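Page 37, continued from 36.
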C-alpha cells in the first residue's frame, strides 16, 4: 500500500485497517515458523505497511492537538 493511498483514508478506516493488518501479520509469522514461506519478504512488507499507517495516524493526532 502506497503512502498516497494511506493519506486518502479516514482515521477510522486507518485504525480498522491497522488491526486487520496486525492480525494478518501474526498469522503470517506463525505460519512461517511452522512451515517456511515461499516469499518471506511479505512479512517485512507487512510490517512496513503497518508502520506507515501508524505514522499517519500519529501525524493526524498531532495536527488535531495544535
Amino acid at each position: 500500500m502506497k503512502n498516497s493511498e494511506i493519506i486518502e483514508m479516514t482515521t477510522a478506516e486507518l485504525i480498522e485497517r491497522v488491526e486487520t493488518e496486525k492480525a494478518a501479520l501474526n498469522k503470517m509469522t506463525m505460519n512461517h515458523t511452522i512451515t517456511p514461506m515461499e516469499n518471506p519478504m511479505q512479512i517485512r512488507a507487512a510490517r512496513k505497511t503497518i508502520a506507515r499507517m501508524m505514522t499517519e495516524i500519529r501525524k493526524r493526532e498531532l495536527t488535531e492537538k495544535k
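The chain has a mean pLDDT of 95. Flag for discussion at group meeting. The chain has one domain: 1-63.
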